[in-house]
Amino acid sequence: MSGAPLVTAAPAAPAEAGTVDGWVRWPDDVARRYVAEGYWEGGPLGDRLRAWAERSGSATAVVAGPPSRPVRLSYADLDRAVDDLAVGLDRLGLAPGERVLVQLPNRVEFVTLLFALLRLGAIPVLALPAHRRVEIEHLARLAGAVAYAIPDTHEGFDHRTLAQEIVAAVPSVRHVLVAGEAGRFTGIDAVAAAGADARAAAAPTSVPSTSVPSTSVPSTPVLPAPDPAGVAVLLISGGTTGKPKLIPRTHWDYAYNAAASAGLCGLTAEDVCLAALPAAHNFPLACPGILGALGVGATVVLAPSPSPEIVFELLARERVTVTALVPALARILVDAAEWEKPDTSSLRLLQVGGARLDAELARRIPAVLGPRVQQVFGMAEGLLNYTRQDEDAELSFTTQGRPLAPADEIRIVDRDGADVAPGEIGELWTRGPYTVRGYYRAAEHNATAFSPDGFYRTGDLVRLTASGNLVVEGRIKDVINRGGENVSATELEEHLLAHPAIAQAAVVAAADEQVGESVRAVVVLTPGAGLTLKVIKAYLRGRGLARFMLPDLLTVVDTLPLTPVGKIDKRELRRRLG
Ligand code: OOB
Hints:
alpha/beta; Luciferase, domain 3; 29 strands; globular; binds 5'-O-[(R)-(benzoyloxy)(hydroxy)phosphoryl]adenosine; transferase; nucleotidyltransferase activity
């Protein structure tokens, strides 16, 4: 028997519901403009899933699980599973506005729990599976999390052991919710089963289960609908300096983010979208990602791991049409595909973003795997830049695209905050209908991270090309001061990558008594290749590089450390090099 539908009532006071402390809103006049211009519209995200299920009912919404035992949920199944879990969580005492730290890998519970929390108006804080004690404790404290959701184990790590430490260290955490074997904690399945029982018990026998239950059935779960203008999720900042920050995204701004991205990518119900990156990251989640795909009735496939074996198997079996990768992963897949010749014939669009993609690798993607490349230069704080599919493919190899929304405002400024001349390099500042006005509970940091008139200072160095697209030239802080001369790490990395013996490169500063900071090139070589500092210096001189730009040190490594989403982790690299 299917239970009574979960009903969400209109919030009592829209201005208050969905409010969390420590959140910087858009100014009223700006908010009114975004509503008037149609950027912000519709209900909260949890309600939207209901509408998608009514539209796409029997179509497959989510495919998850190991390739040998796939789990498939239709849109109707997903909607029901989300209702069960939302009611179960409500019974557990979870209240609207409370924060839940979610650290789930790409398994079906990520999607059901995310939407159950959204329906309840509780706020998911989306940590990545690779985060460990230091980050998780910091995030749980900062968010004041009341619950922490984990897998039992993932990639050989027992998250229940970590949860035990977190519960002991952070008193606000009342519940640990486990996907899989719960041990001493609470199973997500058990919460959903309790919710399903409650819904079944409340189901009115005389009323069809699709209609709104009357007030004569008092035990029917009725949850107040969250305010769509309020905070839906807290994303984690991808910054590689300092501790991660929390980024408050509202139902309206995040729904726009996903739906407009889906429109730009031409997603339809025929598409099959693979989440190979960790689902909690903004890119695979909402650019257009999982949310964008569900919004058009497409199928979402969750890859339990981004290894070539799993990704190739899923591409072929599920006839995947679109996926999103970081450059490091794109390189691994392209390299592996050259040997393994997987069936990638269904793939029409491969999005690459998160870090600089070199043009040579970009060109190999259509040549080896088949699909068009789309570069995505985005940030969890909001702004998304996409290369367009109806433009010259060369632009998608050599630029990072341009803003998604007509209402996105960008400025490229010098050190004093003055606009640079067209085509010059400067720091990118932005504000718009899906870019936050402040980090959560970070008043002090916000004073410098945002301009007084609300622009987010991205810290990215960019230039605008004649084609109207942006090129990312580096990070403001990723510059090495070599005796007073500034060496852009990104620029030197690009030149290094052009050398056939170099597969990956990271340039970092090394302490030097004479020049303060010297330039250290850390490289991974292509199989069988050899390289010396003398050879690489001569090569770079041949490319016309100034003498001060040449590396002082060359370090060859087997692998470079990666961040939880797969970008080269320079902080960790510097730490390792000592
Ligand atoms: C994405 O988001 P985050 O928050 O993990 O990282 C944002 C930062 C940017 O500020 C920029 O420094 C870098 O990552 N970045 C890129 C890039 N895309 C992001 N640098 C060069 N080229 C690119 N294409 O990384 C993210 C969020 C949504 C979609 C895609 C990526």
